[in-house]
Structure formats: structure tokens, C-alpha cells
Amino acid sequence: MQSVVVYGRMLTRALLSPATTQDLRVKRKRELCLVSTAQGFSKDFNNSIHKKGLFGDDAYFIAGYKNVDVLGVADGVGGWRDYGVDPSLFSSSLMKTCERLVKAGRFKPMLPIGLISASYYELLESKGPIVGSSTACVLILDRPSRTLYSANLGDSGFMVVRKGEIVHRSEEQQHYFNTPFQLSLASPREDGLVLSDSPEAAGFMSFLVEEGDLIVTATDGLFDNLSESMILKELSKLRDHKKENIERTAQNLAEQAQELAFDPEYMSPFATEAQNAGIDVKGGKPDDITVLLSVVALYAD
Asked: Which distant-in-sequence residues (6+ apart) come within 8 Å of 222 by Cβ?
């Protein structure tokens, strides 16, 4: 019995020794993290004031908890203006709730759908009911396992670029052309008149990431106006991973999308999809644009 006690004490000392602590620090520094920035524009040129977490009706968040990095975007459905509702209210509330739950540690890294669900149902049960709809896309990086978990509902989404090639991309979810899956909260007056999908309908992906991977998470304002090749071309100009250069690249992507959105002669990805659906249109798609650009980098204290 005494030998067991002595062994236990020796083991405790070993676990608390400086050498072991140093080993843990080395292991921590080998973890991968996300270095992220957000850039974007409102489609309303009169709305030049940028509120934190918002570009027009688009909303986003970037947060972290212990050894986990989390980010997300939500595209507010503009049709709610016909009912006298500000479309940004729902999308921003959804993203703010996600951010708050992350910072409080009230989520599981392997369940990004659970984070969207918890945020949505919290809004549903709030005393001051919020009305509106939005898409939702959330990414969670578990640093120790170097695994990225994603949930995407609707036509926002992400792509992972490695050495100039797209290695992962989320799938767009639509009921029919230009009508994406969406989370909705309606007043009794509009109940049954608006589309409303379950958070659990979101598409789920998980995969390992590598140092140097670039992750573009965005609303459809980017993907409807810039093709994959155009996005890859801009990303190829990022020569290092300094924060200011990441910001500049994200800004360039958003500016290109904004410029082409108002070009009536441009054959945009949106116009191509419209023609595939039997709708004869041409030009870009004026829309709010939100771009989150993340670089997978070695963790540093």
C-alpha cells in the first residue's frame, strides 16, 4: 500500500514538474489556429456607416474560447422590408447570440449545428420576439486535433484553399433558384407565409486543416459575383500571412464583388445560374457583401 502512495506522489510531482509544463507549452505552440479578418459592403451606398458585426443586412462574428476558434456569417432576407421589418435585426441577433454562447463556453466544438440551433431557439424563446429570416454558416476549429467543423444552412458558405487549389467547399442549399434554406421567426400575422427551415437541416462537414490553408467564409454577395477562379487569383497574391495583408486581400475580394455586382454587362455566377434555371438575365447581383478571410497558422501566445 505504501509503495502505491509513494508512486502516486512521484507521479504527481512529475506531472507538475517544470519539464512537463514546458512540454505542454511546446505542444500548445504546435497547435493550429485561425487568423481571421472581416471586410464587406452594404449594397445601399447611402448606408456608409459600418456597424460592428454588420454589412447591410449581413451579419458576422469572430470569436474564440480556450483552444477553439469560431466564426460565422448570416445573410438577412431582404423581403422582410415588405412587412416593415429591418432584415438585419434577425441576422445580427443570431450571430451575436452565437458569439455570446461561444465566449461563455456553451457549445461543443464538434457540433456547429448545435451552436446554430441553440442560438436560434434562444431567439425563438426570447421575451421580446425577433422577427425575420437569414441563412447561417458557422465554422469551428478545434486547435488540438487540427479539425475544422462546419455547418451551413442556405447559400452563404465557405471554401478552403490549399496551395492554390480548392480542397473543400460547402454545398449551397436552395428550395429553388434564389430561394435559399433559411431560419425564420415570424409574428402570428406572417406565420405560415414565410419559408422556415430547421437548424438541423444545415449541411455538416469535418476535415483536417494544414498550416497555410486559406479559408474564405462569405455571404452570397461574394459567391454570386466572383467565380472560383477569380477568388483563387486574388488569394494567390497573398504572399505572407501578416494581418494587414490578410485584411487587404479580403478587402480586395469584397471590392471586386461590389464593382461587378453593378456591372450590367458582366456574366456573373448568379446570371449563369439564372439562365440555367430558364431565366434570361445578365449582369452582376447587387447585394450586401461579407467576406471573412482566415489563414490557418501555428498558434502563438
From this structure: 216, 231, 253, 254, 257, 289, 290, 291
Q: How far apart are CA 39 and CA 8, in angstroms?
A: 54
d(CA 104, CA 227): 38
Report residue 132: phi and psi, to 5°. Answer: 150, -175
pLDDT per position as a tens digit, 203-262: 999 999 999 999 999 999 999 999 999 999 999 999 899 999 999 999 999 999 999 999
Q: Helices (DSSP H) in the chain: which residue ranges?
A: 2-16, 18-29, 87-103, 112-124, 220-223, 228-235, 243-261, 269-276
Q: Quote the CA–CA distance of 151 and 188 in Å, as a whole number.
A: 29
Burial 143-176 (b: 16+ CB within 10 A, else e): beebbbbbbbbbbbbbbbbeeeeeebbbebbeee
Residue type, 228: E
Within 13 Å, how many C-alpha atoms sit on residue 25's CB side? 7
The three-class DSSP label of residue 297 is strand
pLDDT in tens, 25-40: 545 558 999 999 999 9
